[in-house]
Amino acid sequence: MPAAPATGSTARPPLTRFGLGTAAVGRPGYITLGRDVDLPAERTVEALRRRTHDLLDAAYAAGVRYFDTARSYGRAEEFVGEWLATRPEVATEVTVGSKWGYTYTADWRASGVPVHEVKEHTAEVFDRQIKETRALLGTHLDIYLVHSVTPDSPALTDPALHERLAGLAAEGVRVGLSTSGPAQADTVRAALEVSVGGRPLFAAVQSTWNLLEPSAGPALAAAAEAGWLVVVKEGMANGRLADRNATGPDTAALRALAARTGASCDALALAAVAAQPWADLVLSGAATAGQLASNLAAAELDLTPADLDDLSVLAEPAEAYWHTRASLPWA
Predict the structure, then answer these.
(1) Which CATH number fits domain 15-326: 3.20.20.100, 3.30.390.10, 3.90.226.10, 3.20.20.80?
(2) What H or E segment, with its residue span, contains residue 90?
(3) What is the pLDDT of residue 5?
(4) Which residues lie closer than 8 Å to 331 by C-beta, 6 or more apart?
(5) Average pLDDT over residues 275-279
(6) Domain ranges, ordered by start, for the chain
(7) Residue 324: exposed, middle, or buried by beta-carbon count in 10 A (0-12, 13-18, 19+)?
(8) Rounded to whole angstroms, how far apart are CA atoms 216 and 127?
């Protein structure tokens, strides 16, 4: 077990706009590019537990106070829960969000697995997974999202599920959804209309927005206007905007800005997300301490409207972006 981090009295002031996600370190396989060199060669449970705890320590010491996990991230909820249980002085200061709706099925294998996770947005799955999440996170569950909602999801239409989610909200947990796919904007707008007993059901959303895939922006702005917490995931496009991968003509504008400013491509990509007025929190998906430090350098960058305009040329059609994402290998 790694040593406990510095307490709140000695850690850096909170970075209120940035959080740490655990998708890349809670299981041996994921789709982030370059992950084959980022993680230990032997991806045992204990090795990834240590890596997760070390990243959580580093993030907290750097000022991060928001941590994101999910039922389908292998054993990530377990790792986060253990970290919080051994650091009571930290646990009182941080916000933890998790997600339900996918069941992890890879059995701790990185490759050669037909299906790594199975999605099912039913009341029965919610009943099972909220118990599992509570068992691992205890009282440290502040936000609970339906994982990867698309316009056809029962999460938008099932009254029985809505009643359960409303019950969880009544207990003080902020209920929301994450989105994926080229119709993210349609999903968010449909979710804004969902109510129980005349009151809006959802109060948070976690969506993909990055320089390559900005299509959800207007809908996320509407969610922010409605008072929702807006969290942005995949700000680096699963590693496509990292320095080691941003090498093609499609990212030339990003490399040019990096050369002009001396900032890394990943920091600039995340700073572009943070520059969106509707974005409350921007997640780092770092798998190493070096990546985390580089990601969090975004907090020191102040992109100008001209910089953002230069970077806007990176945007791809949403369908093309999600087609490419679907083809990324689990490694």
Answers:
(1) 3.20.20.100
(2) helix 88-91
(3) 43
(4) 29, 30, 31, 35, 36, 110, 111
(5) 98
(6) 15-326
(7) middle
(8) 30
Residue indicated by tokens 């700000």: 235
What length does the chain have? 331
* Res 135: pLDDT: 98
* Token pair belonging to 166: 């409303």
**What pLDDT, on the 0 to 100 scale, is given for residue 36?**
83
Are residues 216 and 185 in contact, defined by beta-carbon separation less than 8 angstroms?
A: yes
Tokens 């009254």, residue?
159
Does residue 318 have a pLDDT over 80? yes
- What is the per-residue pLDDT across 67-110, written as a single tens digit (0 to 9) for each? 999 999 999 999 999 999 999 999 999 999 999 999 999 999 98
Tell me, yes or no, if the pTM score tops 0.85.
Answer: yes
Element (H, E) at 133: helix 123-137
Q: Are 73 and 28 in contact (CB under 8 A)?
A: no
Integer-rounded Cα radius of gyration of the chain: 19
pLDDT digits (tens, 9 = 90+) for 103-138: 999 999 988 899 999 999 999 999 999 999 999 999
Q: Determine the Cα–Cα distance for residues 230 and 223; give it in Å rounded to an integer.
A: 7
The DSSP code for 172 is T
Q: Which two tokens stand for residue 35?
A: 């992950």
Distance CA 168, CA 102 (A): 18
At 80, list the tokens: 């986060």
How far is the C-alpha of 152 from the C-alpha of 187, rounded, in Å? Answer: 9
Q: Of 208, 204, 323, 182, whose CA–CA distance to 276 is shortest? A: 208
The Cα–Cα gap between 170 and 219 comes to: 26
Alpha-carbon gap, residue 64 to 283, rounded angstroms: 10
Q: Which amino acid is at 90?
A: V
Task: Tell me how far apart the 2 most distant CA atoms of the chain are, in Å.
Answer: 54
